[in-house]
Each structure stands twice: as C-alpha cells, then as structure tokens.
Amino acid sequence: MAKIDKELKRQLSAAARAEERGTASGRDQPLEAVVHFRAPDGKRVADPEAVQEIARDLLTRVEQRTSETPVAYNVFANLQSMVVQASRTFLVELLAQPEIASALANRSSKATDHE
User: Fold this and answer.
1) Where are the alpha helices (DSSP H) in 22-99?
2) Phi-psi bin for 42: left (phi > 0), alpha (psi -120 to 50), beta?
3) What structural domains does the chain harbor?
4) What's the pLDDT tens digit per position in 44-62?
5) Which of 25, 42, 67, 88 has an alpha carbon within 20 to 30 A of 111's alpha carbon?
6) Which of 30, 37, 35 is nearest to 12 (CA)?
7) Is 106 in contact with 113 (CB distance < 8 Å)?
C-alpha cells in the first residue's frame, strides 16, 4: 500500500464528496499527484529506462481498469517518480498499484479546493 500524504487524501476525499453531491467541479476538476515508484526486484533504485517502462505499464493498466486517461503526466526517470493530472477515479486506482511507494499532492489546497 502506498504512503499518501494528508493533503492528497484530503483532496481525494473532497473530490469524492463533490461527486456524490453531483457537482460539476467534483467530476470535471482533475487532481494532481506526484507518485514515487518502488524499485523493481527489491533494488534500491531503478535505472531511468526501467522507470520509463514502469510508468508506461502502470498508466496503461490503470487506463484499462478505469476506462479513463490522465489529463497529463510527466515522468521524472532519474527521480524514480512522475506527476499525474487525472480524475479522482484514475488517481485512486493508480495509488492502489503495487509499483507506487508514496504519493503527495502537487498543488496546495487553495488551488484544488472542491468545497
């Protein structure tokens, strides 16, 4: 299970509440998260090419499971991480994947407040 920072958890919860209320901002406003990958095979660090492959495979799998695509993403191969802008549904599924070690909000609460 990925370690998720409090702000990202708050933003995901706020988006879920907005979706439940049926407000357009909850459904249409993408969230942004920075995710850090686990190194494959128990290694401490993955090489940049492996990180790119992990990201591609992961995004493809989540797209298949959610029938959604991210709005945008950028892989930081040397940092073993990526930033993803996507719906709450996509991010929740992404964060549940075993390749994700941790995640944090890419924007402050004022920039993504759904309340």
Assistant:
1) 24-28, 48-66, 88-95
2) left
3) 3-19+27-108 (3.30.70.1510)
4) 777 899 899 999 999 999 9
5) 67
6) 30
7) no
Map tokens 């070690």 to a residue: 101
For 32-44, write each residue's pLDDT tens digit. 999 999 877 767 7
> How many residues comprise the chain?
115
Q: Is the dihedral of CA 24, 88, 8, 14 positive or negative?
A: positive
Tokens of 41: 């095979």
Q: H-helix or E-strand containing 105?
A: strand 100-105
- Tokens linked to 74: 């950028």
Q: Tokens for 93?
A: 């599924």
What is the C-alpha to C-alpha distance for residues 49 and 65, in angstroms, rounded to an integer? 25
C-alpha 47, offset from chain centre: 21
11-20, long-range: CB within 8 Å, 24+ apart, which pairs? 11/105, 11/109, 11/112, 11/114, 12/88, 12/91, 12/92, 14/113, 14/114, 14/115, 15/88, 15/114, 16/88, 17/114, 18/114, 18/115, 19/88
